[in-house]
Amino acid sequence: MLEWIVLICIAILVAVLWPGSKYFGNDNHQHDSLISGLGILRRQTKERVPERCIAERGVDRAQTASGTSENAPTVALICKPSALANYLLKHCRTFRNFSPCTGWTWQASAFLQTVYGACWPYQSPIHFVRDHLQLNDDGLVALDWAVSLAGASYHKRGRTSSNSTSPVLIIIPNSFGKITGNVLKLCEAALSHGYLPVVFNRRSHNGAHLTTLKLQQFGDPGDLREAVRYIRYRQPAGRLYAVSESTGSGLLLSYLGECGSSSYVTAAACLSPVLRCQSWFENGPRWPLQWALVAYQKLCLSRYRTVLGNSVHTDALFSCSSLRGQEEALFCQSGPKASSPGSNGSATSGAWEAYWERNEPLRDVDEVAIPVLNVCSQDDPVRGEPQSTLPLELFETNPHFFLLLTGRGGHCGFSTQPEERGGGGPGGTGGTSWSHRALLEFFRATTDFFAAEERAKQLAARRRGLGAAGVGRAFRHRSVSTCKKVPACSHNIHTIYNWQRSYTR
Description:
With 505 residues, this protein is an alpha/beta fold. It has 19 helices and 9 strands. A 9-stranded mixed sheet has the order 1-9-8-7-6-4-5-3-2, with helices on both faces. The longest helix has 31 residues, at 434-464.
């Protein structure tokens, strides 16, 4: 144990000191230049489309006031011009108010923000009640319902009222199964805003039992689809929202793309998402972070080493030193006797490309039918450089995708000045995170916008004499989307899912 602690300390010291300018945010001119350039592009577009509001108000004001970096914008909303974008700019104050920490403090370091949020223990005042959901193939996923400690005694079996109209917030952690302080703080913020937060844990993650030889592939939404249907069955009167953290965005975007307008989700958000996933696995983050992620995944899988030996090449799995090697060993080998990754270049390369054809999160991006907010930072040390890792053309052409891009913030960090944290304590641990406030405002504004659209449709229908009594009821029980109506389920839901057999702890 002592050796691990020493290695971690050495890795942190090396990462901080080499090169220091990368981690302590001294390259502000490079970061601000991208946002400033986006502001110039938006003003040109705004001149061509005057009736549309392009989400760069803060950029315009800052650049007209002064061309120096002191007045450079700290946040920009990048999206296709639309009425929804105008509405978000008008009603989401958090989108325009981001004051990152500056100077030589650990909160101004992208790397230290990331490490602190991922590794530092956080004492959460909330309690989780777990449901184990049995899937079609007898696998198990865990759903952790967040409740306050004061109300935990009323949720001994994790059964909230099916008549509750409270919205449900589905939280998808990173693909490595680590429950970070960011997830716990998001659950607190959601509870305080009237949501019912539920954390989705994949097979074998966070104490969920591995009852089959199947692990969930990076972008396979099958298990999440069954979990969403179960949540919808338990909470039929409440709207569903979804949030993913870090690499968990791959699963959420795959689900939204495959299900389209039948996703049951009203709106979604991705915190520090990794959007070019195949390239990210091939190139990997900087070596201290990649080493830590590989080591953590090995630690989590080591308890299943014997049983996984029947389906994967465990020697290759536990000897590899890269994220790509682990993913190939788990999902791109034909069996336990298959050659180790790299021994047969052409066969491994073909399997790798085929794997990402099935699991690339943006493969069905054109089918996404709900608004999706992506909160990203330019200095994210896990995702990499924004020029090569952020598909800006997606946000500029797809009306359902919105990118809230900050100059600083690290990976799921977004530390702000004390006055911006709403009374947060020292060290940036108190108060509601800026990114959490932003996504909760996004959910509220999006819901209000589409509710106003539905009311306008009802009014127009009444004027035409068609009546609109059923329109309001349909809106309440479907995704907020103008796409096709979800067909009614024609089968007996209990004959397919063994939800009565799920158990809690």
